[in-house]
Design goal:
The protein has 163 residues and is mostly helical. The chain has 6 helices and 4 strands. 7% of the residues are buried.
């Protein structure tokens, strides 16, 4: 399974702990990621697009002409700053990918024999309806024995205690 397939699964099926770790890491690395995006990643992309500065891309809704976003803000013009939004979107994707890599590694440290995707996926206990790990055999909440193979029909075993 590829790294990007795992990343897609992580973004779709993250748990509350994973999201909490993401919030903490996002706050801790925000200055670093901001510098990475604005100072390193976006200038070459802007160079490819005819030397465009993403932070100066905006629509003016007030009707006047302003050469820069700072001039429009000083004049009090109403603007839609789509360049700043693109910068924030790139920053968000980088933070999300970094959090994914950290959580993926933490899951490997917790259970080194288990695939990281299995650690992130959950199933519902048929008895108590709480989410449990997908590989669980016994529900940790209610203690009920979960069936391994749904195709296999088990006959109840009778025990005879003869003395």
């Amino acid at each position: 399974m590829g790294l990007f397939h795992e990343f897609r699964q992580f973004t779709v099926r993250g748990s509350a702990v994973d999201m909490g770790v993401g919030m903490v890491l996002g706050a801790a690395f925000s200055g670093f990621i901001d510098s990475l995006v604005t100072d390193i990643l976006l200038p070459p992309v802007g160079l490819l697009y005819a030397k465009v500065n993403f932070e100066e891309m905006f629509f003016n809704l007030s009707g006047g002409f302003y050469p820069t976003l700072s001039a429009a803000k000083e004049a009090g013009a109403v603007t839609i700053n789509y360049g700043l939004f693109l910068t924030a979107a790139v920053r968000f994707m980088i933070i999300l990918f970094a959090v994914f890599l950290v959580v993926r590694q933490i899951n490997r440290w917790k259970k080194p024999h288990q695939h990281p995707l299995h650690a992130m996926t959950k199933k519902e206990c048929p008895y108590c309806c709480t989410p449990i790990p997908s590989q669980a055999v016994i529900c940790p909440n209610c203690g009920s024995q979960l069936e391994q193979n749904f195709n296999k029909i088990e006959q109840p075993k009778t025990r005879w205690n003869i003395k």
